[in-house]
Design goal:
elongated, about 675 residues, alpha+beta, Alpha-D-Glucose-1,6-Bisphosphate, Chain A, domain 4, 16-stranded mixed beta sheet, about 30% strand, 4 domains, 19 helices, single chain
Length: about 675
């Protein structure tokens, strides 16, 4: 196939019309352009170019064939079909990085567009559609952004329908493929539907400039990939300098944060990040990925951010996230402002805020330090939804074949608007092709890198989605901060709405209780007894904090604590029992401890965040099985990861027992550990 046949094939695939090729250069284009004129009123302008790092130009025939396949996979929406003249550009670049390494940076199109020199954009979601607003030079453009389509590590596509600007519509496609030398070949496809002569002229000039910008940006990206560490953010931009007042306030806050229970190095890193960090990273600060990039403990950085919020460096945000796309649907500045229900029109789903994963805790820079707007250089759907590996919209009654790079594992699959999800199991030896019908209800099975045959047998467009089956490990959930004593001390005014009951998943609940409290109060008298009980709580609080737990509440002379990790609760229980053992002569207080592990819900009780449920109830009742210096541990805790190894390491001598109660369907198995028994 020569260039002429290939280019005609592009048009035939796109419009299904017979076209004749004319080699006359178009006056509005450059010498590399070829103009195709069909038998009807439609005309097509195709500019095919190739930019390689060695400066050579590739053949246009192979690129035209690739362009034909792209047009088939990403057709214009109905509103843009048969709209005027279609102008196309196709560029090729080589980058010294494999597709899996290049993809996260290339799919972050907001950051990449900034590196290209494009202007800022504003986006607003209205009635389930994303409306964009921006400028190309002096021309203001407004558009509706069609839902992006992508296959991770292979291809992404974006289509815009313009209400105002230089064109009626645009289509941009990035296609990635290995180049056979350890790097990637990046194909960039642009298609425009110009609006009048001014649109054609502006695009002819602007696309020449943009091609040069792509060459510079891809070369810069390749260079930074070679020089950067694995977790570095690439293509950064310098922050605007702070004024004198902001710098002085920042220095004051730095000194205050040195008093927080975190290292000075973490404080300095956080303050410097606020001062000089990239605005694309500062609007919504996520602790876990930031700590990973800095090589620090995310727990320590989280505590630093909480203290930074208290002194006025940061602001705390309770983000309601869609369970499907994980997009932020609502940003609450106070926990009490979190709604009971929310909706995501883009995913066509309504959801209750009753699960821990519906909320994420993030931070914003306090505006008195630095104004950090919510900046976009692109909507960048693939980068904001990295858990989604495949997203394809197939028109009603049509079929699409999509190659993938799916590795072995389990994936969630769903069709927009349908309740629930199913699973795709990718296993060695599985089928090379997987047929998925929009109306299907069962799980699917395929082999690594399987090809998807997407069949939309419905009477409306169907959006097929494949996403990783795991939870978002980078999100800080409410259960994590609720179990931090620092959070409860710093933000005691935070409370849940009265009608919001939030599942916080599995928690380990620990109760301490005084043994012989009646005799103690009788021998001490109320004033002295109260002071001694208060001092004992101070010691219990310190032990719980040291073992990464929090005291949820005190009830009389008893304390209730919560831990995210069962082994931490067991270690804390041992230290509590030893601290108030028979060797103590400065206090007559002796404690027993009980522990249980299981699901809990967080509720608002007495204007504070409390835990409620059967797990809490049974942990309290287990106290009846322990004496002074003893710990009663439910079987659910003993069987949790890390607990048995810890008990063996400590040489614990355990006595099996059980708790019988009318409310229990069967006796509750437990062990009794005599840590510091009375002589």
């Amino acid at each position: 196939m020569d260039d002429r046949d290939a280019l005609c094939g592009v048009i035939t695939a796109s419009r299904r019309r017979r076209c004749a090729l004319s080699r006359r250069p178009d006056a509005a284009g450059d010498a590399s352009g070829r103009r195709l004129q069909g038998t009807g009123a439609l005309r097509f302008r195709i500019l095919v170019a190739s930019a390689r790092r060695d400066g050579r130009t590739g053949g246009s025939a192979s690129m035209a064939v690739e362009l034909a396949a792209v047009l088939q996979r990403h057709p214009w929406p109905a509103s843009l079909r048969d709209t005027g003249v279609e102008w196309m550009w196709h560029w090729r670049f080589e980058v010294d990085a494999p597709p899996d390494v290049l993809w996260p940076h290339l799919s972050d199109t907001s950051r990449f567009n900034r590196a290209l020199g494009l202007g800022r954009m504003q986006f607003e979601e209205r009635d389930g559609a994303l409306h964009g607003d921006g400028r190309n030079g002096f021309v203001r453009q407004q558009w509706i952004e069609e839902p992006w389509q992508w296959v991770a590590e292979r291809e992404l596509a974006s289509i815009r329908v313009y209400a105002r600007g230089l064109a009626y519509g645009s289509r941009v496609v990035y296609a990635l493929a290995p180049n056979g030398r350890g790097g990637s070949e990046l194909h960039v496809h642009f298609t425009w539907l110009p609006r009048g002569w001014y649109g054609r002229l502006a695009l002819a000039l602007g696309m020449r400039w943009l091609r040069r910008q792509y060459a510079r940006a891809t070369a810069r990206l390749a260079r930074e990939l070679r020089e950067a560490s694995p977790h570095d953010r690439l293509l950064p931009a310098a922050a605007p300098p702070l004024d004198d007042a902001a710098r002085a306030r920042l220095d004051t806050l730095r000194e205050q944060l040195y008093g927080a229970p975190v290292s000075r190095a973490v404080v300095d890193r956080l303050v410097d990040h606020v001062s000089t960090g990239d605005e694309l990273e500062l609007y919504r600060i996520r602790v876990v990925p930031l700590a990973r990039r800095w090589g620090v403990d995310d727990g320590e950085l989280l505590v630093a951010c909480l203290y930074a919020t208290r002194v006025g460096l940061l602001e705390l945000s309770w983000d309601v996230v869609c369970p499907h796309c994980r997009g932020v649907r609502f940003e609450a500045r106070s926990l009490g402002d979190v709604p009971v229900r929310e909706a995501c029109e883009a995913c066509d789903v309504q959801f209750a805020i009753d699960a821990d994963r519906a909320l994420e805790i993030t931070f914003h820079v306090h505006p008195s330090i630095r104004a950090v707007p919510k900046v976009f250089y692109c909507s960048a759907e693939p980068a904001t939804k990295p858990h989604i590996l495949v997203q394809q919209t197939v028109p009603a009654g049509q079929t699409r074949t999509v190659p993938t790079s799916l590795a072995a594992g389990r994936y969630r699959i769903r069709v927009r608007g349908r309740d629930g999800h199913r699973f795709l199991d990718v296993v060695a030896g599985g089928p090379a092709a997987v047929t998925w019908r929009a109306s299907d209800g069962g799980d699917l099975r395929g082999g690594p890198g399987c090809e998807l045959v997407l069949i939309n047998d419905r009477d409306a467009d169907a959006r097929f989605v494949i996403e990783s089956a795991g939870e978002d490990d980078d999100a800080v959930r409410p259960s994590r901060v609720f179990n931090l004593q620092d959070f409860r001390d710093l933000f005691s005014e935070q409370y849940l709405a009265a009608d919001l009951q939030l599942s916080v998943g599995e928690q380990t609940i620990l109760f301490t209780d005084m043994v012989g409290s009646t005799e103690f109060y009788g021998s001490r008298g109320d004033p002295d007894a109260f002071m001694e009980v208060k001092r004992h709580f101070t010691e219990v609080y310190a032990i719980v904090r040291r073992h990464r737990g929090c005291v949820v509440k005190t009830i009389g002379d008893a304390a209730m604590a919560a831990f995210s990790r069962p082994a931490d609760a067991v270690a804390a229980a041992r230290e509590v029992a030893l601290r108030f053992g028979p060797h103590r002569t400065d206090t007559a207080i002796r404690l027993r401890v009980s522990i249980n592990t299981g699901p809990c819900i967080a509720v608002n009780l007495n204007s504070g965040i409390d835990y409620f449920g059967g797990t809490v109830n049974m942990a309290s009742k287990l106290q009846a099985k322990a004496g002074a210096g003893e710990v009663a541990i439910a079987a659910a805790t003993c069987e949790a990861p890390g607990v048995r190894a810890l008990l063996d390491e400590l040489g614990a001598e355990l006595e099996p027992d059980c708790l019988e109660h009318p409310a229990l369907p069967a006796p509750l198995r437990l062990v009794r550990w005599k840590v510091a028994p009375a002589p």
